[in-house]
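[worker-b] picked up task from shared queue
[worker-b] task type: protein-ligand structure
[worker-b] ligand name resolved to adenosine-5'-triphosphate; SMILES cross-checked against name lookup, match
[worker-b] sequence length check passed
[worker-b] input payload:
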Amino acid sequence: MSSHSAPTALQDGAALWSALCVQLELVTSPQQFNTWLRPLRGELQGHELRLLAPNPFVRDWVRERMAELVKEQLQRIAPGFELVFALDEEAAAATSAPTASIAPERSSAPGGHRLNPAFNFQSYVEGKSNQLALAAARQVAQHPGKSYNPLYIYGGVGLGKTHLMQAVGNDILQRQPEAKVLYISSEGFIMDMVRSLQHNTINDFKQRYRKLDALLIDDIQFFAGKDRTQEEFFHTFNALFDGGRQIIITCDRYPKEVEGLEERLQSRFGWGLTVAIQPHDLETRMAIVLCKAEDHGIQLPEEVAFFIAEKIRSHVRELEGALRRVIAHVNFTHKPYSVESAKEALRDLIDVQKRMVSLENIQKVVADYYHIRASEMQSKRRNRNVARPRQMAMALTKELTRHSLPEIGEAFGGRDHTTVLHACRQIEKLRRESAQIEEDYRNLIRILGA
Ligand SMILES: Nc1ncnc2c1ncn2[C@@H]1O[C@H](COP(=O)(O)OP(=O)(O)OP(=O)(O)O)[C@@H](O)[C@H]1O
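[worker-b] inference finished, payload out:
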């Protein structure tokens, strides 16, 4: 490439990267996005998008853990582009001089706690799915360090764990403005520790964390396989716990199910109270949409909120994204808020969803989920490890598509419609009796984005 064309290439890269960021923000948690993706810079070289990281740590982390996700989104908006992760030499040179670590007290938030004031109890909608977690969180906010310690909140992506955890932090600060409360993502904790090791300031690091009154640590699943981090966190945990300081942890799964997490941490995480946030039901999703619309100063008609909540079943972040689109569409077209305008605004989202919940895709997704071959969906084999997934796929097809029972039977190896009916009833019964089957069912619904 000739040197005078470089500035244009850089600009295009920046534009592509910023468009990609809009997509990535929807599919990552704010912590993941802010910690790992926001610091990257985009540069274009031919059909190669080069993402430049400010240091090798960030580059390796993103390359190892997020490359697939970034590639997937890149293909959606710019098919045919390749992705390369590299070091931003300029930024690396600027930060190679020893700098202070990203110490909690150096945070930009007033008081250094990094809490988002919008994440409070008032703006948190209660539903069946989060009732217990919310009650526990309120209790902890009133009696930090005394009621449930640690409070361990777990559940799927975007269901409100961070919001709830920060609501506790904000509430504690409101009651005791002098309290030292720190919210940090587990990636932030790891980065802070790594930098302290690099700069020989690990004792400061220890002191900083051990002085806290409440430590709120988000998405602890990222500690998996990181022995040094776990060792350090173990001591931090013990010091805080012994001192009667509050610890709140969030994770995408139950402590014992986090592979690569030391047993001593798993068992400590269960010392206090472990509460789940389940996927939200339709009523709760609708209430959340209405509440978020109000935050934007909009009185959304209930039927529009119902439409959005019914179409977007995956998680709240997607609900928020859908609502933002509807608002933008209405502002742009000057049409009133109506189901019709919401339909127009969300057309492509709904189309993608329709494709996801096609019969073939359900078979494929369910087969992948249970690690069996997709062809088993049509096979005559009856042993349980293929029969159960097959029943699950039939029940999901009945639930999520408009295919009739005979059509479904036909697609599952020419089975009779009574077999499909039996499968649906069987899954319904098993969902009531077995927590595992219920969880599988909900997970699959979420994966299918239905
Ligand atoms: N019950 C709720 N009431 C109001 N807003 C909610 C609720 N649940 C989630 N949200 C909103 O949804 C968005 C995503 O929530 P949050 O970041 O807390 O999810 P999370 O479970 O921590 O996700 P991740 O697993 O990706 O970290 C936030 O904007 C949050 O305010």
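[worker-b] attaching auto-annotations
[worker-b] Residues 282-335 form one domain.
[worker-b] releasing lock
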